[in-house]
Amino acid sequence: MRPRTNRDDYHTMFREQQVNLIRLRTGHNRLNAHMNRKFKLAPSPTCACGQEYQTAEHILQRCPLLDEERKEVWPSPTPLQIKLYGSRQELEKTTTFITSAGLIV
Fold first, then answer.
1. How far apart, in Å, are the Cα atoms of 98 and each of 2, 17, 86?
2. Mean per-residue pLDDT, 39-49
3. Nearest CA to 25 among 83, 96, 72, 67?
4. DSSP 8-state symbol, 102
5. Rounded to an integer, what distance in angstroms lies between the CA atom of residue 90 and that of residue 78?
6. Mean pLDDT, the chain, as a whole number?
7. What are the backbone dihedrals phi and psi of residue 36, each rounded to the nearest 5 degrees, phi first?
8. Within the chain, what is the greatest distance between any pair of CA atoms?
9. Which residues 6+ apart lie within 8 Å of 47 measured at CB?
10. Could you tell me what percentage of the chain is helix, strand and coil, using 3-state DSSP and rounding each to the nearest 5?
11. Rounded to an integer, what distance in angstroms lies between the CA atom of residue 32 and that of residue 96?
12. How far apart are CA 11 and CA 32, in angstroms?
């Protein structure tokens, strides 16, 4: 196989950023919903806010506990698709949000 000559935005990011994005995209992450359903390592699939299961969509879009951090990174509403598959700038915003929120995915 020949090495890739042109790189998309995802492949130009640091490895840690790539890992976080892949985990969020696939749902194979350390959030409560996955850890409870798959491994029974979380006591409940519910987020600490108590409103929904703690999934990537919930933390990136709706969790009231993360509203402040979310508004700092995305001042206007941004679709989940853009946050997970957008341009490099959008992908970096997503990884910045995860870090600033103190989440381990």
1. 34, 10, 16
2. 96
3. 83
4. T
5. 10
6. 95
7. -80, -45
8. 49
9. 32, 53, 54, 58, 59, 63, 65
10. 55, 0, 40
11. 20
12. 28
Q: Which of 62, 59, 55 is nearest to 26 (CA)?
A: 55
Chain centroid, CA 61 distance in Å: 10
pTM above 0.85, yes or no: yes
Single-letter amino acid code for the residue at 72: E
- Gap between the terminal Cα atoms of the chain: 32
CB 46 within 8 A of CB 10: no
Query: Is 42 in a helix, a strand, or coil?
Result: coil
- Is the pLDDT assigned to residue 87 strictly greater than 70? yes
Please report the sign of the dihedral spanned by the C-alpha atoms of residue 45, residue 47, residue 51, residue 52.
negative
Report d(CA 47, CA 66) in Å as an integer.
11
Residue indicated by tokens 């506990």: 65
